[in-house]
Amino acid sequence: MNPIIGQALDRADGPAKVTGAAQYAGDFTASGMAYAVLVQSTVAKGMITGVVQEAAQRAPGVLHIMTHLNAPRLPQGGKAAFEPPAGRMLSLLQDGVIDYNGQPIAVVVADTFQHALAGAAQLRFSYEQQPAALDFTAAKRSAYAPKKAGKEDADVAWGDAGAGMGRATERIDHVYATPMQTHNAMEPHATLAVWQGDQLTIYDSTQGIAGARKTMAKTLGLDPSQVRVISPFVGGGFGSKGSVWSHVVLAAMAARTLRRPVKLALARTQMFGPVGGRPRTEQHVALGAGGDARLTAVRHDVVSHTSVMEDFVEPSATQTRMLYATDNAATTHRLVKLNVGVPTFQRAPGEATGTFALESAMDELSYALNIDPIELRLRNYAEKEPHEGKPFSSKSLRECYRIGAERFGWSRRPRQAGTLREGNELVGWGMATATYPANRMPASASAKILADGTAVVRSATQDIGTGTYTVMAQVAAEALGLPMERVRFELGDSSMPDAPVSGGSMTVASVSPAVQAACLDARAKLIEAAIAPGAPLAGATRDDVTTGDGWLALRSDPSRRVSFARAVGGRGAIEGKGEAKPGKEREQFSMHSFGAVFVEARVDRDLGRIRIPRVLGVYGVGRRLNAKTARSQLIGGIVWGIGMALMEETSLDPASGRVVNASLADYHVPVNADIGDIEVVFVDEDDPHVNPLGAKGIGEIGITGVGAAVANAAFHATRKRVRDLPLTLDKFLV
Amino acid sequence: MHAFTYTRAADVGGALQAGAAQGSAYLGGGTNLLDLIKGDVAQPLRLVDINRLPLAQIRELPGGGLSIGALARNSDTANHALVRQRYPVLSEALLSGASPQLRNMATIGGNLMQRTRCPYFTDVGFAMCNKRNPGSGCGALQGRNRMHAVLGGSEQCVAVNPSDMNVALAALDATVLLRGPQGERRVALAEFHRVPGNSPELDTNLLPGELITAVELPPAWPNARSRYIKVRDRASYAFALASAAVLLDLDGQTIRAARVALGGVATKPWRATATERALPGRRLDEGSLRAAAALAVREAHPLRENAFKVELAQRAIVRALREAGGVA
After folding, report:
1. What's the CA gap between A645 and A649, in Å, rounded?
2. CA–centroid distance for A185 within its chain
């Protein structure tokens, strides 16, 4: 029988999604439900001095207006779950302090959504304004070192970067900048809060139901057993739904006060500030190389902004600590505080922005050395993790470069920039390295084989559009010996066995081993039942029993077989449990995915318009559980990369700190017409260390490297080096 | 959002009657007005739905011009055979705007009335906007103004007229037909929109209660060549950073007559008349076109973030002329 794992299967949840049957958080209703609208501040810093709410109170249908004056007081002023970055500093109407423009300052609840909106429009606030920190450049003077940069230390160095730089015969030393960005998942955040006595059920659009449950319990002063979080479908998160944000708690507070269910859905404009975003970075990268093109030193110093409310670090220098071999390196992260919403994880936090800087600098070095950019990377190939010297669990980057160069036709690329032209377009080819860590966390699952010969497998994980429903069903079907259509995988309910947040590209790597273990446990129990005295396969040894296609059969005598349904028999169901967690291998090996991205850019010589007709990404990402969803993930990541390279930027008004492009008309992401051919190629990898299935994450690596590959291609086309994203056309008007 | 009443007009007379009441607004495709109402930017007391009025016709005029009813949809107009054959620049401009869904709803009359997308105007969370709240100041002058006008602005307002269609209509010398309480009148497109000056709250010279009934185009130039070039930050569904609509009457490679209008860089649809006067007699080479294009931006006042538009507008003119002439 063909293995089910790895097949290019359609999404199990596809029909439900395209027919509208899939229920997203905002689609849920409850009897007696009221509608809440979030009201936000219009100043960046200060105190609320007055609330005029009589008109709003009298507006038709308005049931409740919650402000800092009447909001229920929460344990520790609403900060009980504040453990950044898992638990965030929220705006829960506990005081009148304003920290950013767009901060939640009130909730208006009404019998209909329209009444809530109309009521909210009548609400008036007065403020005592204070000078706000909004100027990144000015705030840099008071940059400070954060405690950590992601999971790593803020500063990491080895060797002597200064001395190494001194020995270099060529040096690159530039500042690269990336702007503030906003996730803009297609599905806006939404929450329905339902209380039954002291039991709270939250229907929420979240990447982490277990975290949401803990955060809600702590913030509201409940026991986790009093909170249930349900999230069967999530229309994209990209990091913005990895934390509980203010509106979730506010919905629960309003519902408790009103003693009726409350739904609070954010408008698109409300996703620019209160639910995170990628912070702006300024990255100083210095590379030194000798005549042999080997790196004598690498420096990468990152400054990113955070909110005055909380420290969040975009860890842009972390990949610089492992990507190239060098004896001398120094990397730092610094923060500047601004009066803006709390920034957060956004698709490949660190690597997306960091590879733009590092891989642009590598490209600049290749021109300085007059060496092919791939050759430069091969000369500095890290055979082992360069800082601590750990071996990689697997690394196919050399293959990625080779296959990519071959398929892209790299050998036909002129070494010199600015030499290719077709009509009014200047043509250039660029490449960059992609990388992302292979993360994994503990997870658990259950598997139940039913009397009808089907199985229900559960884990409190999420499908944020990535294909969890599909690949977990594949893993379960194969482990059990059932065809796909007889396995139902369920997720998105905190009453199911615990699983980690769907972030860090680790859902497959974490949850699939637990699913496999649970299914193998159920299968073993099914076999025990089948060989018990009096049972259909009585007398057989358990090792003699195989399962496949819904049958248990004896290896020694395949004619002796029994269906799953009959083997379950009068028991009604047979249940297995599975837990899986990473072990010592995580200390022994450095675990990462790698890839190589190749881009063709065409820049209009007069109008500066840049388009990307062709992208090729070649990746080594371990074992693919579903060839189709894997490819889709990487294509999606590359599209993100193109958006980041060419157009994405959240713009703040310098006077008020208010976002000026808080809509999908004004905050540009690529439209279909912006995307040309994208080809994704996988290098087969057998990695026994990352997890029992050999799967590395593939959610985030796709965006990495793309920004630099685009900028490098644009330079190759135009001889114009743009070091600040996005590459808008005005930067090419010379 | 504020409460308003809704009436559906059965005929033009009824619409005018309903529209005469203070606080009335005519509702066409609603693609702009409804967004403004939802955002509390527009607060009409009464919406008069005119979609059932018989104003969607596109027909040839005696003498060879074209009449486009105010309720003709953008998509229908762009794809109409007579528009495609005789006024392809209008077709191009319409199809470069918005998205297919919006073009299917949006009307020609509504497009003429389209309001600026300046964020300080469309977001009531900004305290300053002279167009929305006269006398409150302009947030864009010292704020984020990459998208703003370099032509036709004032100390009060630098908001761009966002329409692509208007640019083509300006180049085509269109006339707007209006019906009001005092009867019918005709206004040249050039006189229809206003520069902000000291009354930025007025986008047009439409009088209260007046209804746009049609747009008329004069007969097309025989053998005219035309082009609409739109330069923007992404390939579709984005407003112009600069756009140019050009008409050319050529004698071989030499220009006999030309019309040039600009979008994305000005507070109203902008005829580059100085450029037009300089073009006759010039050939289609970049150098001589560039010299004529420079005349279009002599009066430009760039802001902190949009100086590039001065250069881009000229390049868009040159490219449009060369493409119209078949040499680029």
Report:
1. 10
2. 11
- Paired strand residues for B325: none
CATH topology of domain B5-52: 3.30.43
By residue count, chain A amounts to 734
Q: Which residue of A has its CA nearest to B319?
A: A606
Class at the top of the CATH hierarchy for domain B225-324: alpha beta
The candidate with the shortest Cα–Cα distance to A149, out of A300, A374, A43, is A300
CA dihedral A537, A541, A546, A549 (to 10 degrees): 20
Q: Which helix (H) or strand (E) holds A373?
A: helix A373-379
Domain with CATH 3.30.43.10 in chain B: 5-52
For B315, residues 6+ apart whose C-beta sits below 8 A from its C-beta are A606, A607, A733, B242, B293
Cβ(A465)–Cβ(A536) under 8 Å? no
A540-553 pLDDT, tens digit each: 999 999 999 999 99
Looking at the complex, report in whole angstroms how far the Cα of residue A4 sits from the nearest Cα belonging to chain B: 40
Cβ neighbours of B328 in A, within 8 Å: 424
**Which residue segments constitute the domains of chain A, with CATH numbers given?**
18-131+186-236+241-271 (3.30.365.10), 281-439+587-732 (3.30.365.10), 441-581 (3.30.365.10)
Instruction: Write out the residue limits of the CATH 3.30.390.50 domain(s) in chain B.
Output: 225-324
Cβ <8 Å between A658 and B318: no
- Does pLDDT of A663 surpass 60? yes
Contact between residue B110 and residue B102 where contact means Cβ atoms under 8 Å apart: no
Task: Tell me, yes or no, if B81 comes closer than 8 A to chain A by beta carbon.
Answer: no
Quick: pLDDT tens for A591-623: 999 999 999 999 999 999 999 999 999 999 999
Task: Please report residues of A whose CB lies closer than 8 A to that of B35.
Answer: none
Task: Kindly determine whether residue A653 and residue B139, on different chains, have CB atoms separated by under 8 Å.
Answer: yes
Contact A599, A540 (CB under 8 A): no
From A40, A607, A661, residue closest to B231, measured CB to CB: A607
pLDDT digits (tens, 9 = 90+) for A258-314: 999 999 999 999 999 999 999 999 999 999 999 999 999 999 999 999 999 999 999
